[in-house]
From TrEMBL:
SMART domains: CBS. It comes from the Eukaryota. Belongs to the chloride channel (TC 2.A.49) family. ClC-3/CLCN3 subfamily. This is Chloride channel protein. PROSITE patterns: CBS. Strongly outwardly rectifying, electrogenic H(+)/Cl(-)exchanger which mediates the exchange of chloride ions against protons. The CLC channel family contains both chloride channels and proton-coupled anion transporters that exchange chloride or another anion for protons. The presence of conserved gating glutamate residues is typical for family members that function as antiporters. Pfam families: CBS, Voltage_CLC. One of its GO terms (cellular component) is plasma membrane. Gene3D superfamilies: 3.90.1280.20, Clc chloride channel. Residues 633-699, 730-788 form the CBS domain. The chain crosses the membrane at residues 103-123, 191-213, 233-254, 261-278, 290-314, 363-385, 405-424, 474-495, 507-528, 548-573. Keywords: Antiport, ATP-binding, CBS domain, Cell membrane, Chloride, Endosome, Glycoprotein, Ion transport, Lysosome, Membrane, Nucleotide-binding, Repeat, Transmembrane, Transmembrane helix, Transport.
Amino acid sequence: MEEEDAAADPYLPYDGGGDTIPLQEIPRRGSNYAMSNGGGAPSSSTHLLDFLEEPIPGVGTYDDFHTIDWVREKCKDRERHRKINSKKKESAWEFTKSLYDAWSGWLVVTLTGLASGALAGLIDIAADWMNDLKEGVCLSALWFNHEQCCWTSNETTFAERDKCPQWKSWAELILGQAEGPGSYIMNYFMYIYWALSFAFLAVCLVKVFAPYACGSGIPEIKTILSGFIIRGYLGKWTLMIKTITLVLAVASGLSLGKEGPLVHVACCCGNIFSYLFPKYSKNEAKKREVLSAASAAGVSVAFGAPIGGVLFSLEEVSYYFPLKTLWRSFFAALVAAFVLRSINPFGNSRLVLFYVEYHTPWYLFELIPFILLGVFGGLWGAFFIKTNIAWCRRRKSTRFGRYPVLEVILVAAITAVVAFPNPYTRKNTSELIKELFTDCGPLESSQLCQYRSQMNGTKAFSDDQPAGPGVYSAMWQLCLALIFKIIMTIFTFGLKVPSGLFIPSMAIGAIAGRIVGIAMEQLAYYHHDWFLFKEWCEVGADCITPGLYAMVGAAACLGGVTRMTVSLVIIVFELTGGLEYIVPLMAAVMTSKWVGDAFGREGIYEAHIRLNGYPFLDSKEEFTHTTLAREVMRPRRNDPPLAVLTQDDLTVEELQGIINETSYNGFPVIVSKESQRLVGFALRRDITIAIENARRKQEGIVLNSRVYFTQHAPTLPADSPRPLKLRSILDMSPFTVTDHTPMEIVVDIFRKLGLRQCLVTHNGRLLGIITKKDILRHMAQMANQDPESIMFN
């Protein structure tokens, strides 16, 4: 190495000239050590039973914040399956074990579905009760919310259906009066007090007991499903605290939803139940199949959309989704939805609060406003992603991020103070969406339905009518609510409390859609002779449904933020039961995706994955550059040489020295320094565990014991200490590419096989290594970003 000409820089991209490749020198053994490359007979000192032929406990497991080896996990599972199949005919017990193994997949998804449905029902009921607690209390039964309190009342009238003697507002309880400025101020004060109390309790519980319980959880679940290990993220503490704090966060009135976090809750259930079955607890790749099914169950109970949940898991969160997982996801979603329906948390025999049915068809000319709502959704999505990521980045890099409790209290206080005066922002977001989706009928008391009647004081609700003063005041309040929701959602998503994005995005779209819907309705009424309306709308006939516009707007805004398409349309269709409105939904969702993609291709979850620097290779992202493997591999120019191990030329002391001096996760094993031919790849963690295990269980393993990765021990002098065989931890078939392989193909291999690293060779000789992080750094460089700023710390 030292004799090489300085001009022939060994760290330049390898051009095929010569055979010498820069590899880190490893101290040579003395000449009295005759080497046999596994071909010679084993020496007399190695005839003892080699404990390392047995599986070593701990080998094949992973450290926190490391990526799993998908190929190795799949091989491990195939080997386990073969073993069970070969033994099942030996006895009835072995046959029973094989049956249990075959059914364990269905059992674990059943348990996950049951737990997800039960927890979702509990969260729905508790959040409704606590939300109403901000406004008053039911004296006849404290555990009833406002609606349940008035169910049995005989004093309610059609005009004042929300008022009954059993339900007392805080002003009535404290001051003894229901009307007047004093009671308004008292109700205002109590609303702010409860909102701040809930928010404070939620953020304190998260901070003290389970820091991983904050946020929506979907970016991290996507990363975990791609093979990354985040210990504790799906643990029992996270599940317990997330369930409690989700109720508190929703009840505090912050601009967030419970739907995203329900996916995290369901995945926690899936992870916990997978530990009951060795098939899943001991195999990280198999465990991710359960988590894919769990995420489908989470969406199923969040929206009452089992099929939408399966498609969400397939389209949005899962990295590896075999056909078997599709069936199990479907089953988990079915079980979860069945349990939630049995609990009936909303008392309407539906799985969701805002289930609606429309009875009028849509007309072709309405595609124009539907597409305009799609454009609005795409613009809102792009604006939200850019501003929210900028704010989250600022939070990470400034002192403000060090005080999460103060930030939550501040945002909750502003939200409560501004929200109370406006009836549309004061109420629970799900109830707001329900009111905006609902079509006006004779039983509706909403301001949005106060049309001027033309038929002797009664309104024919099947006809379009001129808007009354109630509708105009509602329009102004909705416009203010829209601005408020847009601003507060940007600052709320990313707080240290459980916060979903589905419901706030849908609320923004529903408000915009309802405003457009009422505008179209009035246009059709006053200008029914226009070319657009003349052909479809007869005078006085009902041809515009404002609630439908709210539904389309909600889908468009959610699509703009998440960039979901197929699963989103199915979720909204299942939410509303409107099969004939699939085309308007598809048109709006596709438009919002195209408009959003024009400003940036990644959705909010991908943006947060990038912000946190998780090692996630997005399968939707295209790699279009013409670089080669040798330009990305390490060692680069000016890098230290590649650390390698020789197959039978190291002592335990030298091997431990290499491990202590470097921080690499694994080392290529080569035949010798002279040939530099590749033998395999050994992981750092496996080497450390194997050495500790051998010292504990084997006699005669000392610091100068020879380490060998070959089948047979090298020929050693008679007085040398017992050698240590590490062949069982060696990956004999590591993935290799040549130095001239285009990076486009390398990236594809990493995505499709879920590799951790890939070795680069030239004419069969080791040249360098490419890891997942090298690829992410390279992609960041190609996109003109700082490669170090995107990596997880």
